[in-house]
Design brief:
alpha/beta; 4 strands; 4-stranded parallel β-sheet; globular
Length: about 90
């Protein structure tokens, strides 16, 4: 199962839905985790930390949405982003 983590885009949002520590635990449990590049920067988690945790870094939010079975976000996704999701992705 693919879990997508896009960068938060709401004004003044500094959170990220999954930390590198949690992402690593998900990977070890057998999940594939796709994190948009820069998703953790506002929360002081760099791409290198996610890479070390074993996640796949993707270039865009559309990649995170489109390649995932489940999408994790802190703020609800905007309609434009939801249109990028694969059919059947739970919200």
């Amino acid at each position: 199962m693919n879990i997508g983590v896009p960068k938060e885009t709401a004004a003044n949002e500094r959170r990220v839905a999954v930390t590198p520590d949690v992402a690593g635990k998900l990977v070890k449990a057998g999940f594939s985790v796709l994190v948009e590049r820069g998703a953790g920067e506002a929360a002081s988690f760099g791409d290198a930390a996610y890479g070390a945790a074993g996640v796949s870094l993707v270039a865009t939010a559309a990649d995170a949405f489109g390649q995932s079975d489940v999408v994790l976000k802190c703020s609800r996704p905007r309609l434009k982003k939801r249109a990028c999701a694969a059919t059947g992705v739970p919200w």
